[in-house]
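Table 4 source record.
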Amino acid sequence: MAEQRWSARDPRDTGGDSRHTEGGPPEAAADDIARAWDELVATARRTVADGLVVGTSGNVSVRVGDTVLVTPTGVPYDRLTPDDVTGVDLAGRQTLGTLRPTSELPMHLAIHTTTDARAVVHTHAVHATAVSTLVDELPLIHYMSGALGGPVRVAPYATYGTPELADNMLRALTGRTACLLQNHGTIAYGRSLTEAFDRTAQLEWMCRVWLTASSVPGLTPHLLTPDQLAEAGERLRGYGQPT
């Protein structure tokens, strides 16, 4: 996939117009929004239950038409209700709800506007975050790297919520569906919230495997070759049941 560029900006910058759209976006039916919000909240709660985030760290988004539903900033996921639906348009202008969107909105919008993603999951998973401080690319410890498009890169550090971080992330995601964020965490996207979450969990698992194997004194883990990974990646494209 050719590198795609997106100039991130402060999502609060609405060109002087801070009004919310009455009644929500016309292209997204209310029932579709409601179902997507319920699934988003369930996914966000699962990141906590599975130990991928602590407290209100991390965030989740899902796209419905030209509306991007996002977790609001600073609100524990177990407190979110159907009345808390929070959504923005693709330019970052808030169109649904009154709670402020996640501070990482630039990253989410960068993915939603430059890929075919329907959902994005960002976490501060322990093992993945640890690996992000050690290497520039996750060593080829397991063939499931092929399911993410190839060797998982680490996006250089930038302050959270900034256009710089969104740009660094997009470069690391070139040809990939997930990457690590240096001294920060993970981000993954997919055609559904389930797929984005599964890719996140798989990345955290691979990071844990590499950290565990590389911590054995006197031994160095065997790594896959690029050719071995490419072969596994081809086989993974046909994995599972036909859709």
